[in-house]
Amino acid sequence: MVYIAYYTCILSVLASPLLARKSARQAVDNDVLNWVDPLIGSQNGGNVFAGATLPYGMAKAVADVDGENTGGFSTDGSNITGFSALHDSGTGGNPSLGNFPIFPQICPADDIDTCKFLIGARATQYKSGSVQARPGFFRVTLENGIHTEMTVSEHAALFRFDFSQAVSGNGSTNPMIMLDLTDLWASRQNASISVEAEDSTGTGRMKGNGTFLPSFGAGSYMAYFCLDVGGGKIKDSGVWVNDRAGTEPKELYVTRGFNNFYLQAGGFIRFQGPLTGPVLARMGLSFISTEQACQNAEREIPGPDFDLESLVTSAEEAWREKFAPISIEMGGASNSSQTNFWSAVYRTMISPQNYTGENPHWQSAEPYFDSFYCIWDMWRVQLPFLTVLDPLMMSKMVRSLLDTYKHRGWLPDCMMSTCRGWTQGGSDADNVLVDAYVKNLTGIDWNLAYEAIVNDAENEPLEWSFQGRGGLTSWKKLNYIPYLDFDPVGFGTNSRSISRTLEYAYNDFNLATLAKALGKDTDKKYLARAANWQNLFKSDQRSSINGVDTNFTGFFQPKYMNGTWGYQDPIACSPLAEFCSLTSNPSETFESSAWEYMFFVPHDVGKVIELLGEEETFLRRLEFFHTSGLADIGNEPVFLTVYMPHYAGRPGLSAKRVHSYIPSSFNTSYDGLPGNDDSGAMASFTILSMIGLFPNPGQNVYFITPPFFQSVSVVNQLTNATATISNVNFDKDYKNIYIQSAKLNGKEYSKNWIGHEFFTQGWTLELVLGDSESDWGTKVEDRPPSMSDSQGGMEMMMQ
Ligand SMILES: *[C@@H]1O[C@H](CO)[C@@H](O)[C@H](O)[C@H]1NC(C)=O
Ligand SMILES: *[C@@H]1O[C@H](CO)[C@@H](O)[C@H](O)[C@H]1NC(C)=O
Ligand SMILES: *[C@@H]1O[C@H](CO)[C@@H](O)[C@H](O)[C@H]1NC(C)=O
Ligand SMILES: *[C@@H]1O[C@H](CO)[C@@H](O)[C@H](O)[C@H]1NC(C)=O
Ligand SMILES: *[C@@H]1O[C@H](CO)[C@@H](O)[C@H](O)[C@H]1NC(C)=O
Ligand SMILES: *[C@@H]1O[C@H](CO)[C@@H](O)[C@H](O)[C@H]1NC(C)=O
Ligand SMILES: *[C@@H]1O[C@H](CO)[C@@H](O)[C@H](O)[C@H]1NC(C)=O
Ligand SMILES: *[C@@H]1O[C@H](CO)[C@@H](O)[C@H](O)[C@H]1NC(C)=O
Ligand SMILES: *[C@@H]1O[C@H](CO)[C@@H](O)[C@H](O)[C@H]1NC(C)=O
Ligand SMILES: *[C@@H]1O[C@H](CO)[C@@H](O)[C@H](O)[C@H]1NC(C)=O
Ligand SMILES: *[C@@H]1O[C@H](CO)[C@@H](O)[C@H](O)[C@H]1NC(C)=O
């Protein structure tokens, strides 16, 4: 049933003659969902959410563990502590959400006090090989034989607990479901629960709410739940505190008391065993109220008989529909390439999350998306990829960012659990808005977007740790962010003077692009500011590793307000030195070295090449960077460096570099990500690299490299046109990775880059491959534009 529906869907959306020739049987084998493995990145810091969710869904159900639990579950061998239904994906640092976990158990004897309520006591291993993760579905069997399955709707989750194979608890057969008023980070400030159980109907309800802290942001948030459990005759119910429980009272309010001591508490419902079937637990969620949590559950997963299978089917349909615009001709490429690809596509749609109707901060008819965690990670490839795959949704995300500006006075830089997240670099929502503009996303108020970006560029907020920019007085007066700036206007972490200078310069370049396009008279002013990065280039700076000179000259360095240079070792903050974040080892470059930031001038690579001493030196430096251990392939600033050779007329070197990282650093193992997925940032690097069109967002530019498959086609949602990029002489072993010549819509094409029209107008790009570099795409006029080129400058913003 499901598979036939998929077949129809592929046919209608893709109308590909190739697929049309295939039999229905082949379509069954080719169900795209079979190529998605949500467990990729579930250990070694990938921190992906591995459980059940809808595309961009708010409800995300999974088993939570006590090891690497930033995204809830991990295959790191740690123990399961609960099952919860709010999560983020791929984030770093503190674990996010995981509120109100429930936990099934059979307590020894009949005494409720023998149940294991505390997190450490109840943590349990699971049976090896019992984990199954698919889009919209997750299952695992606990060590004691309790079999658990889960799926979701938009704002509710459904869990099924089968106790029939459970090791009975010392003579007892009475299953208990408990709920813990906690979250993964144990950030709860205070919380309430009330328990109602009807012995006669065999259903019990626990509902309540709690105040928690965002995992990487300011303030606090309230979350609400409404849990209905059914499956047999109810024996008793009540609340628990510490490891003691009672059937009276049926309500509880818990706070943080002496020294902020963390009291564990919650509710429970116990059934009279043995049961004839499984226990079903429906968890409704909301950020508005307990009533809304109950309504969400009742509307999306109607009772009294909860149907897990049909919910799974709907979730699978929703995912297939999202994957439908893309089709691949394998050309003999490996199954693992295909799994790598589709699993990555899947992970780009876990977050941002659609919280429309769940925004507690303001009322609006506009869409509301949350878990932009963080835009510093997402603007580079993930959001540009969604612009390719899902432009209608991307427009709504952009509208949500603008609505946030309207109601909070500032564009967000990072958002999680409805709170403002910490800013890492520049005001990077600016880049997202302008990328949407140059790619013609529809339904967006561009004058409002201009106003919002100008606000970032001109006005310094009191708290620039979570919105806007800091040091704007110096930025306007000195034309760089000084080392040890004097800034009494606003407050933030006053580090990162080099990386903020580079990021603000790119933010201002994007603003200039929009200003010019909208006919404002500020474009020249912002274009001038876009060159500010040059003020921190110290042309005689050298760099040594373990006392050996690397023989490259010229790096960004910190500069005091008085114009005197400061010093930061160019290899500091690289993988060869100590990591630098906002709180640990804060430095003048953020999460990356001066070596890596040398290549972060997305709008003027041509000028960088000139400053570093022409193409050969630039290419040697890039090569050294990628082979010396200085490059941090597990973090976002590195992405663009992989494609830099395009600017020096050597697109073949970019292709070669991509293949040195995929699959060796981005692959299908559970530890197959080199760093935090960061909502889907690592995923989208994989996808657009494998498609062979990598963006430089904010500009209408994709770098061309050969796809990892025979061909890839993408249907554009706005125009229904199908774009195809294909290889001639495709070699599944990737020896032929060098473009010899190219045809665009049948005509010779020599540029090594292309605009977004490729997708909107449904063009066909055919690449002829060979096993060594050719002169294709090497000429000066074939390279992507740079701001200070003779042919670049203002023109590049108008393509
Ligand atoms: C998991 O729990 C078991 C007891 O069930 C314990 O022996 C083991 O050490 C725990 N594993 C971890 C990784 O904490
Ligand atoms: C059974 O449970 C009772 C009550 O907790 C306990 O005293 C007893 O030791 C348990 N027996 C076994 C074999 O676990
Ligand atoms: C929070 O939960 C408690 C317990 O169910 C309930 O009394 C209270 O009304 C809830 N508050 C809100 C705002 O929903
Ligand atoms: C927790 O306390 C804060 C501050 O007193 C209050 O605003 C909030 O409503 C409380 N939350 C819950 C869940 O009771
Ligand atoms: C690749 O996947 C197909 C379809 O699932 C399967 O029939 C084939 O055996 C797989 N090939 C390898 C080498 O695993
Ligand atoms: C977002 O969620 C709202 C509320 O559930 C829904 O009406 C809307 O269709 C969703 N938006 C998208 C773009 O899926
Ligand atoms: C830089 O040049 C010096 C002198 O020729 C040489 O000893 C050194 O090994 C070179 N450094 C690197 C990293 O190759
Ligand atoms: C500039 O300021 C720095 C830091 O205060 C100081 O070390 C340096 O001597 C000053 N340079 C000049 C030329 O005054
Ligand atoms: C897969 O990727 C991980 C993370 O980058 C890496 O550590 C591992 O060596 C890779 N595995 C293979 C087989 O290439
Ligand atoms: C694209 O196709 C859809 C579905 O057939 C249709 O509703 C829509 O009008 C088409 N859009 C364009 C621009 O042709
Ligand atoms: C955007 O629209 C303009 C004006 O219609 C057109 O010239 C341009 O090619 C479009 N860009 C894309 C990426 O579709």
TrEMBL record:
One of its GO terms (biological process) is carbohydrate metabolic process. Residues 1-20 form the signal peptide. SUPFAM superfamilies: Six-hairpin glycosidases. Transmembrane segments: none annotated. Pfam families: Glyco_hydro_92, Glyco_hydro_92N. Residues 35-286 form the Glycosyl hydrolase family 92 N-terminal domain. Residues 292-771 form the Glycosyl hydrolase family domain. GO terms for molecular function: carbohydrate binding; peptide-N4-(N-acetyl-beta-glucosaminyl)asparagine amidase activity. Residues 776-799 are annotated as: Disordered. One of its GO terms (cellular component) is cytosol. Keywords: Signal. Gene3D superfamilies: 2.70.98.10, alpha-1,2-mannosidase, alpha-1,2-mannosidases domains, GH92 mannosidase domain. InterPro entries: 6-hairpin_glycosidase_sf, GH-type_carb-bd, GH92_a_mannosidase_put, GH92_N, Glyco_hydro_92, PNGase. PANTHER family: PEPTIDE N-GLYCANASE PNGASE -RELATED, PUTATIVE-RELATED. This is Glycoside hydrolase family 92 protein. It comes from Clathrospora elynae.
